[in-house]
Amino acid sequence: MTEDAKDLAGPTNINLLEACVIGIVAAVGAVLLKEGVGRLGAWRIAMGAESHNYLSLASPEMTMFALIGLVGGLISGALIQFVAPEANGSGIPQVKAAILGIPQDLSLRTAAVKLVSCVVALGTGLSMGREGPTVQLSAALSANASKLIRSSPKHRAQLIAAGAGAGLAAAFNAPLAGVLFVLEELIGRMSGFTVGTAVVACFVAAVLSRLVGVHSLDIQLSKYNSVSTFAAMDIPFYLLLGAAAGLLGALFNKGIIGGLTLNRDLLKWPVTVTCGLAGLVSGLLVASQPPIFHDYSGLREALLSGNLGLNTILIVLALQFVLTVVAYSSGAPGGLFAPSLTMGACLGLLSAMVEQHFCGTANSITFAIVGMGAVFCAVARVPMTAVVIIFEMTTDFNVVLPLMISCVVSYLVAEKLDPGSIYDQLLEWVGIDTHIVEGDAGIMKTKSAADIMHRSVETIADDCTLSTVRAIFANSKHHGFPVVDKEYRPVGMVTHHDVLEFDRLEHGGETLIIEVMTVKPVTINSDESLAEVVLALDKYKISRLPIVEKGKLVGIITKADVVTAESQFLLRSKKTEKIND
User: Fold this and answer.
1) What is the pTM of this model?
2) In what order do the strands lie in the sheet with 480-484?
3) Most distant pair of Cα atoms in the chain: their distance
4) Which of 225, 280, 382, 451 is the most exposed place for a label (fewest CB within 10 A)?
5) pLDDT tens-place string over residues 127-139
């Protein structure tokens, strides 16, 4: 039986209260981001609405949009550069790194900067989404909540993952997709604790966000007087859509990584400057187009209405691609979910036009919806999440079959052209090899205390006198020993510092050790995981830990033993990687 199977088969202890708290804070984060971006975006559009002469480069509208974009970019960039550099980008790579055990700053300061800088950046016109930032914001709040509860490192990581999934669920009103995203992208495996906690957190987050009005990404087909359809004659064109989405997703990911590399290795400008320039460029390009382009969420609705012509669709696709690459490459805070959906809708409409040309009929809205899922899948490489998230956005079962076809094809094509999700690629771009790190996380779960403990343990009998103990310390390199009774059960711990402190108080040398030792020592069973060992060492601020079986001492583990085990594992992993290369 595998470890994950054991997790599912064994008892699962879900902290329902903590899961509910995680869901609540995720919903709060989603609402704050949605309201902040919406209000600031509405102000930007109103300020630029004085002139609609979009063909004139000197129009007040273009000047206003460019100025707002420049100022917004400078402000958000300055917050990232000088206050919390970890708040850049979508935030999902940072969350994944934290879950894998790599130190990341998920403090309240980072959460606050993420919220404010994202509202400023997106509200002033940068072409990115708020869904990724919601994930990081929720994960940061969950990380701070988990510090208040003594849980194992493995469970603490899963609580952070549950917070991230709850953030996604709150942003999309898609609780199932939030759970799947945790399992498919962030954790990469299934356990009862992970599933249970994520389900509760995502449910609470989605319900609360829906109650307070976070519906911006919902797709109501009745509003467009359309019903989704799927027929056998559509299959070749959905296969074509999937292949095109895979190609677009691979190019988009390469564009993001290429833009970041250009800024880091060639331009080498401060993030404040690059964000300001990105805002300026976005303002100029958007203002040079008709008013329909000024509101990104309204643009998606216009695409789904099916009333846009071929030229407009191509312009939307090109602009969204370029503006998102420019914005993300600048280091500005913002996500890639929403731009992926917009580009997917464009690609779906183009595929519908191809079918219309050859077959004389096509359901353009269904193609647009399926295209959204296919491109999102090609970018994030999460086929099941892509299917479920679009289904939850539409609540229409008829889109599931074409979604499955296109998403699987887009995933296969994108993986062939450019392996790895955009989040894995972003981690590798900063020097984090997710494959080695996942293995390192595995050793904490798969190795037990018995695997690394020292079985030959020097002990002190509980009837020893202090003078005998002094002699033992004088002839040993160790600075602490477990004290055992006649049945070899640990009844205490004594350190050299304890003896010195006792001598300082001028007690007699024939004192029994039981008067000096620390009674009721912290112990751990030999079958407990290495993660539990690390938790105990950290929780009780001790440097050595007695290991027991049925109450009797069988070994001892020190902090140095844990470090050595991890170092040896990483060394073997690197050697294996070189051999494979």
Assistant:
1) 0.74
2) 460-461, 480-484, 490-495, 518-519
3) 103
4) 225
5) 998 888 988 988 8
